[in-house]
Each structure stands twice: as C-alpha cells, then as structure tokens.
Specification:
21% of the residues lie in helices and 29% in strands. With 212 residues, it is an alpha/beta fold. It has a six-stranded mixed beta sheet with strand order 1-2-3-4-5-6, covered by helices on one side. Strands 7-8-9-10-13-14 form a six-stranded mixed beta sheet. A two-stranded antiparallel sheet has the order 11-12. It binds zinc ion.
C-alpha cells in the first residue's frame, strides 16, 4: 500500500476525519473535518495539504471546513447537491454543541467519475445519494479503500430521515456499491469502526431484509 491513511475520530459524534497522503510526495487531502480543527491541523501539518474534500454536507462533517481551508489555504470540494445542507443545523443548538463554524461554499464541485489525485494515488468519486442528495464516496481501486461517509456503517447504513435523505436512493446506492466493489475493500465509515465490503455483504442486517 502506498497510501498513508490516518483516520481521526473528532467531536462528540466521533465523525471520522480522514487524512489521505502519499508519503513519497508528501501530498495529502483532508476528508470531512467535522470538529476539533486544531487536532486535525496538528496531524496534517507534516504534509503538503492540497484540498479539503467532503463526503457530504451535514453540519457534523463540515463543522471545521472553514478553519482547515483557511489554515492550509486550499480549495474545498463538495457535491452541489449538498450545498443547501451546509448551514442547516439539523437540530436546534446542534451547531453550538459540536462547535461548528459557518461552512463556506465549495470552490470545486464533486461529480460522479471525477478523479482526485493525491501524489501518485487516485481517488475516484462515486456519487451515491440517499443519506444526502450529494453524498460522494472516495474510492481507491488500487489501494482497496472506500471512504464512504455516512452511506454505510459496520452493521448499519446511513439514516434517510435527516435533511436531504431519500430511502429509495439510498437503496440504489448501496446496491451499486455492493455490485461494483470487491469484498476485500476496506470501508472507512463516517462514524465509528471501519469494516470491509465482504463483512457487510455477509453480516449487515440492512442488506438482508432491513432495507434491501
Ligand atoms: Zn450525515
């Protein structure tokens, strides 16, 4: 594996902020800086950070985008479908609870099939709506890693009842992921533990009657 992947659980909801780096070039991107911006900066500052990329626009995932973008002076990538969500608090008082800053508009719009280069590593954008309209996974076929945001969790799937959620789209997106990706793909979820496509294919109750 030539990718260096550091997953930092941040904030009271343990949002997984990922730092994806190519150690041979020192380049990196930061995915989903939801909270604890100072802590993320401490880990990321050894790299040449090129971008902030968000899987989706829920406030617990974008809460520190402004801080990271300004500190490293880098563009912010988000799918346009989620722009309406970035200032939605979801629940009254939630932004204060997670210490979220006001999220800026994206500089670069993610779209299906786009490739993001981090040194010699290629991350392909998979647009997989359902949890939100613009949720995108970042997939490295070569490294067998999927950064899935809140599409999929170990033993669970993303909620479809939050702002922007759509159950039918979530079903289609999960069907797509499980038909396209090999079992040995490591899945970095939006919160909590990582898993693999194979483990979820066998054991995830939502894929065995719970949703699909
Ligand atoms: Zn979410």
């Amino acid at each position: 594996m030539k990718m260096l992947l550091k997953v930092i659980p941040v904030g009271p909801l343990d949002v997984n902020c990922s730092i994806v780096a190519d150690p041979s070039t020192g380049e990196a991107i930061i995915v989903d800086p939801g909270a604890e911006g100072e802590r993320i900066i401490e880990v990321a500052r050894e790299f040449r950070v090129k971008a902030v990329v968000n899987t989706h626009g829920h406030i617990d995932h974008v809460g520190q985008v402004r801080k990271i973008k300004e500190f490293f002076d880098v563009p912010f990538y988000l799918h346009p479908g989620d722009i309406p969500l970035i200032r939605d608090e979801i629940w009254p008082g939630f932004a204060t609870y997670i210490k979220a800053q006001e999220c800026p508009e994206p500089d670069v719009l993610l779209e299906e099939g786009m490739e993001i280069k981090v040194g010699g590593i290629t991350l392909r954008v998979l647009h997989t709506p359902g949890h939100t309209p613009g949720l995108c996974c970042l997939y490295s076929e070569e490294e067998k890693v999927l950064i899935a945001g809140d599409l999929l969790f170990k033993g669970s799937v993303g909620r479809w009842d939050l702002p922007g959620g759509d159950r039918e789209k979530l079903k289609k997106s999960l069907e797509r992921i499980f038909s396209e990706l090999p079992d040995d793909t490591i899945v970095v979820c939006g919160h909590y533990e990582e898993t693999t496509i194979g483990h979820e294919r066998r054991f995830n109750p939502y894929l065995h009657g719970g949703l699909l």
